[in-house]
Design goal:
208 residues, mainly alpha, two-stranded antiparallel sheet
Length: 208
């Protein structure tokens, strides 16, 4: 078992591993991918019909409206719905496109994963920020992370002391919306900046 998931409930370990891998691959803040994955909460093979006639498919509830773009790469709805990490890669790819190309702050752009319609985006955005803060606190106890909004930022080392003080039950991020988020430090979600995992532990490491 990978050490960084030992404190997580078994039913979400694959989701966390896949989210972190996809975030690193597509250079998307890991806490945002983890927050979207938790909020979407889909399952392999799951299809959820929307009122506009589209469907949300698979573990990351990838909307079928995007399948036309994916078809040119030979990617089908069944690929999106399949178990494993592939759907997380697709979601991170889509999040990267929103974050790089859309308008608004990073949370609004990330919430476009759900909807660009303001009334739906606003609700999704607020919950996404709350979940992303929780996951950021968890990430910072296990990984070297970087503030992606600051050029030349120094890596933040894992807070081993915080890990030692937490029991596995408290350290594990909530798997359902009703559960209370884990907090290692007091912080307002609106003030939090996304964190990117760094695999370079040198103090002169730069955000990519």
């Amino acid at each position: 078992m990978l050490p960084f998931i030992a404190d997580l409930p078994p039913q979400i370990q694959e989701r966390v591993v896949c989210s972190i891998s996809a975030a690193a691959k597509y250079e998307v803040p890991a806490n945002i991918v983890l927050a979207v994955a938790e909020k979407e909460g889909g399952k392999p093979g799951q299809w959820v019909r929307n009122t506009n006639g589209t469907h949300d498919v698979g573990p990351m509830q990838f909307n079928t409206a995007y399948l036309a773009e994916l078809n040119r790469y030979g990617i089908t709805a069944n690929d999106v719905a399949a178990a494993g990490c592939y759907s997380f890669d697709l979601a991170a790819w889509r999040l990267r496109g929103h974050i790089r190309n859309d308008k608004g702050d990073i949370w609004t752009r990330a919430a476009n994963y759900h909807s660009r319609t303001p009334q739906y985006n606003t609700v999704y955005r607020a919950d996404l920020m709350r979940r992303a803060l929780k996951w950021a606190n968890w990430l910072e106890t296990h990984f070297v992370t970087l503030d992606v909004t600051k050029a030349g930022a120094s890596p933040s080392q894992p807070t081993a002391a915080a890990v030692a003080q937490q029991s596995p039950a408290k350290a594990a991020p909530a798997a359902v919306p009703a559960a209370k988020p884990v907090t290692v430090q007091a912080a307002a979600p609106a003030a939090y900046v996304p964190r990117q995992i760094s695999f370079n532990t040198h103090l002169d490491a730069q955000p990519r």
